[in-house]
From TrEMBL:
Keyword Transcription on entry: no
Statement: the UniProt record of this protein carries the keyword Ribonucleoprotein: no
Annotated GO biological process: carbohydrate metabolic process; glycoprotein catabolic process
A single Gene Ontology CC term: cytosol
Descriptive protein name: Glycoside hydrolase
Native species: Herbidospora solisilvae
Location of the region described as Disordered in the Swiss-Prot/TrEMBL record: 716-746
Cross-referenced SUPFAM superfamilies: Six-hairpin glycosidases
């Protein structure tokens, strides 16, 4: 699996074959680019490192800020002014762009710092990135959990240098730069320097250890060397007063000589940064190959937790890379919170909670439950310290917490964690925060009026009340449970009974059609509100483009009228965006899993590919890639409900390493995609589940409890080319159903 990963997928504008079938009718409202980067990362680790051009949004690449259509280019070439740390992965306009502590190998004078040089001969694999600058310097970076190690191979030169710029941060776009508020740098000697910069209210400390015998080691300020200086202090920095500063190593090189730069990071001061460096690298000794090997082993372990057999080489590459992208964020580290003194897990870069709660967090609970527990424990602590569960949480202090996108999203993950009995969470304390959080932000209006605009928050809050009521009942707080359960019925207030769709309202990145097919806690009542199975299926068919003509996607700099016409289609966004990413599985609740198979098959075939342009839209911290993983496995998590929906998988066999063993999904009758004479993959035929067994017993339902999957077992799916009656008679559970689930789904 490890060798199939291609970190360059998603780093360039979308470049997929013209879509056929249903996928040709879907319209993409958001930028057609994955916004990923190929830099060195560690699974859910604290540090990343990559070539830095200042481009949007990761600091790598060529693109300007983009919010819709084909992204525009800032640069006509791949270039870098150095190598920075802490990058986002697949996000859009979240305003925290990091790229701190730029390291630049130079054979030019210090005055040229900030100039960019062309990149060539790029290489990337999990935990490793390399490229050659046109100055002739070969550059390699790797990272551990809290460290980064750089290795530079220089040409022969009388005065080469490695410059560490502590003032760097953000992007080279309008309003994209990050300016440190305060900073201090100290030259310790013997290759070692330490410093702290306060960025976005967070003290980021670094301890640097460079192995460069015979080289000079100096501090610098405003591109001028401070000969003999041992310390720089900046008590108050503003945009108007900022001048670059940092540390420098300088000396002669022979051709092929390497210089290694080892960096330990911490959010709790230089002493802890040094301890982190010592623990992973040691001091005064080469460690690049050791750190690279350890990180590669961590990646191998994580990627081997979901194995697939079969599929074309292209699908194997897309799948392995999707799993890799799913495990980069959030950053989950121990004992690094800068905001509370106690030890324990600290999570940041929970950048797109409104996307990852549906797909990525259930994936972490399945294959990395200890990391999922750490994330949730950290979110509870954030709620305790700051007064509410965050909708987005980055390495930043202050009120820059997203709220327009959703409400009560942490409640879904906590509900699943409780159903799965994950360790490390004090549930009585979690319940206090879950209940209190429902009254904050939009929750106050929901409490008073039973409806709130944007109308999607009505669905979020009703769902949050339902999930919190379930936890309260499990903890024997029946009074609280009954009160919350009454308000959980408020989801009906969001819908117009005349249309069966959401009421007119404001919508974030979509319209009422995109949000009308959310998987709610009472889908049976939801379908009845739309006129029953036939009416609901009819609206879904219209939404997914059955019988519709192909559409044209937005180009570069789309005009307002072009975007308005696209939105007016009221069409599925085709995984270019995530508001409707669970909608294909809504067919399950109306007894048509065959329709789910058709939509998901079309998405897997036409919306993902190999190469830098292989993603249909922003990866959103792994939310999109996690969708691909679940869809390929033939399972889809209904977040918060301890439930998986079952569908025809894309691979002949798959195995998930779960907490209590292994859950195997095997098929009979599986057909691979045919290969044309030029080696290209053709569209495979849609496959439908004909029958199923779970651990050798017949399974007539197209769903399983998440607890069943997490216990391990064997799901066998017999596939065929025509729709069948399988899964139509036993619907997934809804609130208005009998509370008892059928025995075969347990």
């Amino acid at each position: 699996m490890l060798d199939n990963v291609d970190p360059f997928i998603g780093t360039a504008a979308t470049d997929l074959p013209p879509a056929g079938g249903l996928a040709a009718t879907w319209w993409w409202p958001k930028p057609q680019v994955g916004n990923t980067h190929p830099g060195a990362t560690s699974p859910l680790g604290m540090v990343s490192a990559c070539a830095y051009s200042g481009a949007y949004p990761t600091g790598y690449g060529r693109y300007a800020k983009n919010t819709e259509g084909v992204p525009e280019e800032m640069f006509d070439r791949l270039q870098a002014s150095g190598f920075t740390h802490f990058q986002q992965s697949g996000t859009g306009a979240i305003r925290k762009y990091y790229n701190y502590v730029r390291v630049t190998p130079m054979v030019q004078p210090l005055d040229d710092l900030g100039q960019s040089w062309s990149l060539s001969d790029e290489e990337a694999s999990p935990g490793y990135y390399a490229a050659t600058l046109d100055t002739g310097v070969r550059c390699e970076v790797t990272v551990g959990q809290k460290v980064a190690v750089h290795r530079y191979t220089f040409p022969r030169h009388s005065s080469a240098r490695v410059v560490v710029d502590l003032s760097c941060g953000g992007l080279a776009i309008d309003l994209g730069r990050t300016v440190p508020l305060r900073a201090q740098v100290e030259n310790i000697g013997h290759g070692q320097v330490q410093g702290t910069v306060v960025m976005e209210g967070v003290p980021l400390s670094v301890y640097v250890d460079v192995d460069a015998p015979g080289w000079r080691q100096m501090l610098w300020y405003d591109r001028r060397l401070i000969d003999g200086g041992t310390r720089l202090d900046f008590d108050s920095i503003r945009h108007t007063t900022l001048r670059p500063f940092g540390m420098l190593y300088m000396g002669p090189t022979r051709a092929g000589q390497t210089i290694e730069v080892r960096m330990g990071f911490s959010l709790r001061g230089c002493d802890q940064a040094k301890r982190n460096l010592e623990r992973e690298c040691g001091l005064g000794q080469p460690s690049f190959d050791i750190v690279k090997l350890r990180t590669r082993a961590r990646w191998s372990d994580h990627l081997d937790r979901v194995k697939v057999d079969g599929g074309t080489p292209a699908r194997q590459t897309v799948y392995a890379t999707a799993l890799y992208h799913s495990l980069i964020k959030p950053c989950i580290v121990d004992d690094e919170s800068p905001f509370w003194p106690s030890n324990g897990p600290y999570a940041f870069d929970v950048c797109t909670m409104w996307d990852i709660y549906k797909t990525q967090l259930p994936l972490l609970m399945a294959i990395a439950p200890e990391r999922a527990s750490g994330l949730l424990e950290s979110l509870i602590r954030v709620c305790e310290e700051e007064g509410n569960f965050p909708i987005g949480y980055r390495m930043a202090r202050g009120a820059d917490r997203f709220f327009r996108q959703g409400s009560a999203l942490a409640h879904t993950a906590l509900a699943d964690a409780h159903a799965l009995d994950l360790d490390g969470i004090e549930w009585s304390w979690a319940l206090v925060h879950m209940a209190d959080d429902l009254r904050r932000m939009y929750g106050e209006d929901f409490f008073e009026h039973g409806v709130v605009h944007p109308i999607t928050h009505t669905l979020d809050l009703a769902y949050g009340h339902h999930l919190t009521a379930q936890l309260a009942r499990a903890l024997n707080d029946t009074r609280l449970a009954d009160d919350l359960a009454r308000r959980a019925h408020g989801w009906v207030n969001a819908f117009d009974p005349g249309t069966g769709l959401l009421r007119d309202s404001e919508f974030y990145e979509g319209g009422k059609w995109n949000y009308s097919f959310r998987l709610l806690h009472d889908m049976a009542a939801r379908i009845a509100l739309a006129g029953g199975d036939a009416g609901f299926i009819g609206k879904l068919d219209q939404f997914f483009g059955y019988g519709a003509a192909p559409v044209k996607q937005a180009g570069r700099r789309p005009q307002q009228a072009e975007m308005a016409a696209g939105y007016a289609l009221n069409r599925f966004e085709g995984l270019n965006n995530e508001p409707d990413m669970e909608a294909p599985w809504a067919y399950h609740y109306a007894g048509r899993p065959d329709r789910t198979a058709e939509v998901v098959h079309s998405a897997l075939t036409w919306q993902f590919g190999t190469g830098p342009g292989g993603l249909p839209g922003n990866d959103d911290s792994g939310g999109l890639s996690s969708w691909y993983i679940w869809a390929s496995l033939g399972l889809f998590p209904v977040a918060g409900q301890n439930l998986f929906l079952v569908n025809a998988p894309a691979f002949e066999r798959a195995a998930l390493r779960v907490r209590e063993g292994e859950f195997v999904i095997e098929t009979s009758g599986h057909k691979e995609a045919p290969i044309s004479s030029d080696g290209a993959e053709r569209e495979p035929p849609v496959q439908y589940v004909q029958s199923a067994t779970l651990n050798g017993r017949p399974l007539d339902a197209a769903h399983l409890t998440a607890a069943t999957v997490h216990r391990g077992g064997r799901l066998h799916l017999r596939l065929g080319p025509e729709p069948s009656g399988w899964g139509r008679g036993v619907r997934p559970p809804s609130l208005s159903d009998s509370p008892a689930l059928s025995e075969e789904t347990r």
